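Student:
Attend to each token:
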Amino acid sequence: MKAHTLILSIALSFSALGSAQALATDSEQLLHIQKRWAEVNYTLQDDEQEKAFDALLAEANAWIEKEPDNAEAYVWRGIIQSTYAGAKGGLGALGLAKKARKSLEHALKLNPEALDGSAYGSLGTLYYKVPGWPLGFGDDKKAGELLMKALAINPDGIDPNYFYADYLYEQGDYQGAKIAAEHALQAPPRPERPLADEKRRQEIQALMEKIATKVN
């Protein structure tokens, strides 16, 4: 083998190794954020939860600083910001909600199908949870459009179906909400996210109980 060919082969091998290591690192970072978010969101409360959300948000910011073109990082920063807003409440919540919208919109610009279209679902949820003008940017019509886009990408996912069921319930479409909630319960488990699945299913069951009072 000629010298320059050998050098090129070695260089390509190191390049491939570096890419594989980067992918492993990305995957580890994603799994860590997902796991920690579930712990913070579902098992902590009050000041302890706020401090943990602050720390988790700092991790998401560091991830974005390291990988500014990674849509997954922006999706998760938006999810953290939006759930932190829900936990925080008050005037501070609206500021976090606006930051979440910005993060999720940027994720959509980078890759709308990242994490099975999660940015659409999270952004759609923001639009129907946040108050409308003049207090906030809430918009039920836009929320519905975004949630439908999430379902188009991930029609059988537990999250998009739950979000859509909750949205339909809030809109007074109880039959539609029941169908979407039942579909959410049929979603396949996510082995890497057992706590998130367990708690989401509890949320779906709670929603179905509310729906039952409206349709029976």
About this structure: Residues 1-24 have pLDDT under 50 and may be disordered. The chain is about 80% helix and 0% strand. The two ends are 78 Å apart (CA to CA). Residues 3-43 form the longest helix (41 residues).
